[in-house]
Amino acid sequence: MNDYQVSRTGYYGEFGGAFIPEMLYANIKELQDSYLDMLEDPGFRETYLDLLRDYSGRPTPLFFAKRLSGQYRTNIYLKREDLNHTGAHKINNAIGQALLAKKLGKRRIVAETGAGQHGVATATVCALMDMKCTVYMGAEDIKRQKPNVGRMKMLGAKVIPVYQGNQTLKDAVNEAMRDWISHPAETHYLLGSVVGPHPYPDLVTRLQAIISEELKGQMKEKTGSEDPGTIIACVGGGSNAAGIFYHYLDHPHVRLIGAEAAGKGIHTNKTAATLLTGRPGVLHGSFSSVMQDDDGQITEPYSISAGLDYPGIGPLHAHLHQTGRAEYYAVTDDEALDAALNLSRKEGIIPALESAHALALLDKLDFPPDEHVVINLSGRGDKDLQTLLQHLENEPD
Amino acid sequence: MNRIDKLFITKKTGILSVYFTAGYPAPGSTTKIVTALEENGADMIEIGIPFSDPVADGPVIQKSSHRALQNGMSLEVLLNRLSEIRNNVTIPLILMGYFNPVLQFGMEKLCSRLNRIGIDGLIIPDLPPEEYAKKYRNLFRDHNIHNILLVTPQTPDERIRTLDDLSSGFLYLVSASSTTGGKLSMDTGQKAYFSRVAAMGLSNPLMIGFGISDRESLDAAYQYAAGGIIGSAFIRALENRDCAPEENVKIFMNKLR
What we know:
Chain A is of the alpha/beta class and 397 residues long. Chain A contains 16 helices and 14 strands.
C-alpha cells in the first residue's frame, strides 16, 4: 500500500533524498519538518481549496473528446488543466507553496521556469499575496516563450535571464538555487516540479494531487467507475503526471503512462527523454535518473517543448519506472507538433507543446474500443503559437 | 599521519589554503599551478573537480569549471595528473567537487586511488553529512582520507557539534550566506558568527572560506580561525593571459605577503 509514498527520509525506493550543500540545510530542514503539518492543517486546506475554486476555476472539467475518440476508436477524456487560471496545472502548486511560504514568514519568492507556465503561476500568486517575486528563465526559453515573459513582467515579477549552459530549464534551476543560497532567511524557493531535494517532490506531488482527486469523482459520474483504464501525461520534471497519477498509484489495474520528450529521437544527442536515456545520479538535490556522460557531467537536453527540456526527472517517476508501476514512452518534436495540430482541428483545443507529447502517444499505443483513456491536458498552447504556426506553414495543405 | 593533521599540529595560525579548478586555465596547467603554489607559500591546496552544474558556486568558479571541462578535465584525468604532482609536492592536497562525478566514479574506487596517490582529504558540498555517516565514513577512515564538512551562518550550534564529530582534518567555515566569490563584509553579524563558532571549543581546527580574496580579508580570517581559504580571487588571477600560470601564481601570492 505504501510502496509509492515517500519515506520519512525522502525516498521512493532507492530514489530521492536531499543532496544539498550545507548552505541550504536550514531552509530544507524547516520545510521537511513543517510541510506535512501545514498541508494537513484544516485552515490551510480551506484557504487552498477556496483559492483553487474561486481564483483558479477548479474543478477543471473532464471533457469527453468525441471526435478524437472516433479517430482512435476508443474513449478519450481530456482533463482540462489548461482551463486553470494562467493556463496550466502549475498554479495548483504555486498557490499551495505561496501559502506555505507566508506561513513560514517568507516575503520573497524565487522560482525557475522553462516554458514560463510555472513562472507565470508564481508571478500571479505573488501579486495576489503581495510577495516579491524573482523568476529565473533560460535566455533560450525567453526567446521561444515570449508571451509568458510579458505576462510575468505585467504581473510585477522580475525576470532574470540565465546565460549559462544551454540557457534552458536546468540552468534556471541552478540560478534559482544560487539565489536561495544567497538569501536564505527571507526567501522561499517555489520549485515548480516534483524534482529537487526532499520534501519538494512530495510537497509538489501532494499539491498537484488535486487533479486525480477530482478525476476520481468525474470518472465515477461519467462512467460509473472512478477508475479509467489508462491515464496518460507528459513528463519533464513530472509534476502534472505525478498529480494525475497520485490517487491511482494503489489502483494497480489503472494503467499509468508517461510521455517523455524524445526531441529529435532518443538515439540522437538531441533528446530530453531522461528515463529512457539517463542513468541514476544526483542532480538538483535528488538521486534520480539523470542524463549524463561517463564522467557524471550532466548532458544538455533538447526538446522543442521548453517545459520538458530538462535532463532530470522526479524521483517518484524513477521509482515508478523501475518498479514497472508506470510505463514511459518517448515522443519526438514532430510527433508532438502533429498531435497539437490534430487536437486543434478535431476538438477546437490548442494544447501546450508539453501536453501534445501525451496526446501523441495515441498514435503509438492501441486501446480497445471499450477502454476509457484519460489524457492530462496540462496546459494550453497560446504560448507556443509562434512554434506551432511555423510547423503549420511547413505542413502540406 | 595524514598531512592535514600534520599541518595543523605544526602550524596553529595563519594557515593559507588555496583553491583552484583542475584543468583551468589550460589543459596542462594543473601541475604547474600546484607546484608554484607550494613554492610560493601556500600551506594547503584544494583542487576542484570541475562539474557541469556547480550550484554552490558564483560566476568565477562556474566559468573556470566550464572551461576546465572544455579543456578535457575529468576526475580520471585529474587522478592521473595527481600521481605525478604528488612526487613534487609535500603539502596537503584536497579534492573538492560535487557529488555526482564522484558517485559515478565510485566512492570506494576513489578513496583507494586517493590513498595510493597520497591525497589527504575530500570536500563534497552536496554530500549530506548524514549520508556520509551512513555510507562512507568507514571507507574514508580505512583509506586515511579526511572528509571536510561545511558550517554556515545558518547552522545551529547543536548541528555544528554534529558536523564537528563527523568532519575530520578541519571544519570549513563558510563566511556568509552566499555562493563562492562574494566579499567578506566583516559586519557585526559576521564577526559574532565567527566568534561564536571559535568559542565552541570544537575538536577540529577552523578554516574560513568564501569571500576571502586579499591580504585584508585573509587577516580577518586569521583573527578568528586557524586559517583562510582563497578561491575565486585566485582563479581571477589565473585569467591573466599575459603571463604563464606559474608567474600568475607568484604575482598573486606576493600580493598576499
